[in-house]
Amino acid sequence: MIIQHCIANPLTIIRTPRRLSHPGTVLMRTGDSVEPAQIVAQAIIPPDFRIVEVARELDVPLRSANSYLKVERGQAISEGDILASKGGFGSRVCQAPISGKVAGVGRGRLLLQAQPQIVHLNALVPGYIVDAELGEGVVIETVGGLIQALWGNGHEAHGVLRMVVREARHPIRPTHINASSQGSILIGGSTVDGETIQDAKDMRVRGMIVGSVPAGLIPQLREAGFPVIATEGIGTTPMTQAVFDLLRSLDGREASISGDIGNRWHQTRPYIVIPMPMQVGQVIRADTPLAIGDRVRILRGAYRGRSGTIHEMLARHVQLETGAHLPGASVDIGEGEPVRVPYANLERLF
Amino acid sequence: MEEAHIIDSILVVDCGTVITKLLLLEHVGDSYQFVAQAEAQTTGKPPWNDLSIGVVHGVQELESIIGRTLYARGGITVPRTGREGVDAFVVILSAVQPLRVVLAGLVREMSLESGRRAVNGTYATIEATLSREGNLRAPQEMWARTVRDLMPDAVLLVGGVDGGARRPVLELAEAVALATSMLDEEQRPTVIYAGNRTLRSQVTKLLGDITHVVTTDNVRPTADSEHLGPAQSALEELYIEKRLRTAPGIERLSDWSRLPLFPVATAFSHVVDFLWHREGNADRGVLGVDVGAATTTMAATFQGRSYVSIYEHGVANGLIDWVETHGADRILRWIPAEMDRETLLAMLYNTELLPSTIPQTSQELSIELAVVREMLRSAVSTAWPTWDVGKAAMQATGAMPRTDPILISGGGIVLTPRPGQSLLAILDGLQPVGISTLLLDSSRAAPAIGAVAGIKPLAAASALESGTFVSLGTVISPVGQARPGEVVMRMRITYEGGRELNVEARHGEIEVWPLLEGQRATLEIHPSRHIDIGMGLGQGGRVEVLGGLVGLVVDARGRPVNLPSNPDRRRRTLNRWILDVGG
């Protein structure tokens, strides 16, 4: 049996894909070493354009509009340049609304194209390029810690991890934000509120990692300007103890974090990468069958967010509070008797 | 002479957005039966990016059940050799992103509305609509920018009745041509032209050198007629080509199968069509609803004509988009316990983030069933305008045309622990009228049967007869004017053994009388003067009905079902209805 999984591992081989939003140029080759801020690829964003209705603006017939033109196809233009003019009685001019070039002429109209904009894609994580796909992006291999989360606000950053709470059940509060927070990625236990986010923004923190974020805060988080990552998703569930302990052990280290969650058809998981000066890490085999002793996290129900180990893979179905009977396992979460959870609501922790 | 290929065992793989379902149909004695089924996580997304991984896991589970080998030497053995493999292997899919379509047309209530319905007939989402409405200052520039920036898979260009408007349609075509010419070749959308037929050659001339153009019959050939079939087929072909054939790992599955790939919705509509022909009722249709994680499919057959409509939301993926458009109150109103908006939103977000999880607490289940109700409501409103029957009644009262049976499929509803919970969600969501048997596709085999119908119709028919679907019961839904508590119908139930029961139903209530699965009873129904049970106002009669897991149900709440506006009263009412149906 394979079940969904999540990586929360102190030393593994991490492959981070970095993809351009538009087709472009990859600036690196396989084997190149990269640093987080290094540009690995660039793309040209389709330029802005305008259709200028020359015939209509000069009030001349379509077929004669070309004879009034002052520019030709391919010519560079600046905003305000005269594109066409009609002298004499009722004189009129047609001016360029944007700077760029004349991309097309015909049917009494001009097509103007602005200067194309170049966007750069940085590496975000340090490591070696192991795959450079023509025009699309790169894959960077790093050895270090990797923690996958559930929700993120779309932003990404690189900085130093700073644990600001003592327990996984403690939220980040305004009192945790001070001068030393500047440039850091703050780690909290349970959740965060709007006032703290505003203070963090003012203090220019580099990022924030918490257990959960309240649903009502999401619009503010999207505009926060720095990455916020929730390891357990939305609500008030504290950070899974195993993840909290791992992050605590990495306090003070440099990390790259991405809050990208993709879209409904191409979901991706937010992540935290903590590079280590090692050559080897654990290879994760996601398709190995689930077995007794495997680490898991509970995703739903009263024990949501707890982590533990598979105590027994049950021969008989688990009965849920809803009355449903489903295949499942008993999980030792370190709180007395193991709890029974359907496989569908378990996530394997690698 | 070539020996005919005997098909005695068929493996159907249904790759859904979240779960991949495998069903093995075999010739047993004189009939075909589902002998085993298995499930695995769909593996089309990261970290796997290969649908065949989940399929192989599922096949291994099947092998452990049936005790023989299906998968050997890196593939499914087709045809069967001795005890190894199957005679046919069919793959149906819905686990891929729908086509992204830009719809361009002239009048919102005419061509654009027809175009929208055509798009709803396949797995496709409308990313933007281009029209002259809104007094745009530079419409062509905006249209072109929209197409260029969105880079859709297709532009569906409609507009103008046959022989009608020309210039406005060509202006749209010009803008699409301009946008398309600014894109790299591999990013250019296919243009499906389904507008004024007299412009076909001009549109092809304008766009044909830039991109692939498909011309079909006009979706709105006259102001008061609609012809969606050809445009829907063109969109479905494009979906198969651009999405199904390029799904990660599909090449491997196709190599093993060597049969055409099917969208799940198409396979599902085959079953509904099949049921209509089996029931042979010219005066009522057959309805099928498949509530999935990402989409809700509604298939119907009326008077021998099939209709498919795919609503672009399901019970998990895209939920938050839905809430942002329609508001959380639409879901909150169906929750029978006190719940604040923040709690509801958190659960909806988490369901979307973890679509393969299942409700574990009563609170989680009540939210999921509330979502099901609203997806069904939305799917009905998307579907009925495409039907040729019952439009006037739907517009006037929201009452559906008579459908019997109603087939319910999809993980979003069939996995509900108690049958009463499913039944109530269906009644609240669909709000059927008249007399309907509700069939539950509890093993989620309906799309598989539809797929089998394409290669071995006899096997599909046989599987249907062998009790694949479970009856929830027969529901009588009287409609008409009545005061709360007023008796709307009286009924004599005569059971197979001759035992009789005289009962009555009151407006605003749901009544359930015992009629077990497999049992039949004869009903003598006498509705009140202003009440219709599908036989005309005040008209009753004798009907034979089938029992089910819930029993014989009279839903006398009227149509549409109105919920009290006071939150406490509403919750009390919802809880009473739940108790009434044993949910």
Helix content of chain A: under 10%
Q: What is the helix fraction of residues of chain B, given as a range?
A: 25-40%
Radius of gyration of chain A: 28 Å
Query: Would you report the number of β strands of chain A?
Result: 28
Instruction: State the major sheet of chain B.
Output: 8 strands, mixed
Helical region count of chain B? 18
SS-derived structural category of chain A: mainly beta
Please give the count of helices of chain A: 4
What would you note in describing this structure?
With 350 residues, chain A is mainly β. Chain A is 8% helix and 42% strand. Chain A contains 4 helices and 28 strands. In chain A, the strands form 6 sheets. In chain A, strands 2, 4, 13, 14, 15, 16, 17, 18, 19, 20 and 21 form an 11-stranded mixed sheet that branches. In chain A, strands 1-28-22-23-26-27 form a 6-stranded mixed sheet, with no helix packed on it. Chain A has a 4-stranded antiparallel sheet with strand order 6-11-10-7. With 583 residues, chain B is an alpha/beta fold. Helices cover 35% and strands 26% of the residues of chain B. Chain B has 18 helices and 26 strands. In chain B, strand 20 and strand 21 (500-506) form a beta hairpin. At the A-B interface, strand 6 and strand 25 of A face helix 1, helix 3, helix 11 and helix 12 of B.
